[in-house]
Protein: Trehalase
Amino acid sequence: MEPAHAHVAAAGEGDHDTLLGLLQRVQSAALRALGPHDFDPKLYVDLPLAPGADRAAAEAALASVTTREDMETFLARYFASAGSDLVEADPPDFEAEPRGFLPRVASREARAWALEVHALWKDLARRVAPDVAARPGRHTLLPLPGRVVVPGSRFREVYYWDSYWVVRGLLVSKMYDTAKDIVLNLVYLVEEYGFVLNGARSYYTNRSQPPLLSSMVLELYKATGDLGLVRRSFPSLLKEHNFWVSELHNVEIMDNHGRVHNLSRYQAMWNKPRPESATIDEELASKLNSTAAKEKLYHQIASAAESGWDFSSRWMRLDVL
Ligand SMILES: OC[C@H]1O[C@H](O[C@H]2O[C@H](CO)[C@@H](O)[C@H](O)[C@H]2O)[C@H](O)[C@@H](O)[C@@H]1O
Structure:
């Protein structure tokens, strides 16, 4: 199973997948060198190559990395920090206290808290650095045309269903232009890949997330009456709908009266460890003996991630808690 799409990079630099392969080897080497305590495998697949650093040279140097000190020197030499390929972008439609902000909230404490939350947009708004589109073989981040809002912390990229809540919040904050950018970024992903990716990283091209793009367009339309946006998005909404009702996701269910219903289920196009959590997935699969059983587990983990509910207590058996 392969992801739906692979971007081709500038000549000689390799593509997203070539870099991702190296970063997964860095991730495994980092686990060996640093140990499991506080280890976040996602950090390593988010690293962009440092300006001027050569991927093949990094690959060769990795072979001699064994200690923590080796790893620190190696990372400083060949990689820029995770998240540095997103640049800060002050949203021009941000106002410290927008006119008409939460008109029904009278409590002073509640308003002060809401304004603190509102101010977070300035911390979370970014633009994708131009190098990401110019030299895709140096980044696992994917280019997006407009301003982005990231979840924050270890999540240094746009996520699909998070964007729904982001858009709802931006509308409360009267940041209509930023909200429109968020939606058009997702429309761009549909145009490029045929569906909205789980997130805007090359390692998320094998699955989507709960399909909320049409709801975002609707919310924006209700708030602004922007029919142009609806027209612009419509072909992508149809394309996305086709993705979700296609053979990949479709399942036929027969009810008690013998009537057949078509449902769409989460189903990732992937049967390997998730690159952003590969060390964790591999350890889990190590308890299984056959390749087929491992592939089935990897596929199910990625499909659970497509549901967006990875991995909350709803997946846990009560009798083992
Ligand atoms: O807030 C962003 C998302 O965070 C969680 O999932 C993401 O991280 C997982 C591993 O680090 C990854 O496998 C998954 O595909 C990502 O979406 C959360 O479970 C998501 O609901 C949320 O959108």
Remarks:
- Residues 2-11 have pLDDT under 50 and may be disordered.
- Residues 86-243 form one domain.
- Residues 42, 151, 155, 159, 161-162, 198-199, 274, 276-277, 305, 308, 310 surround LLGJG24Q (CB under 6 Å).
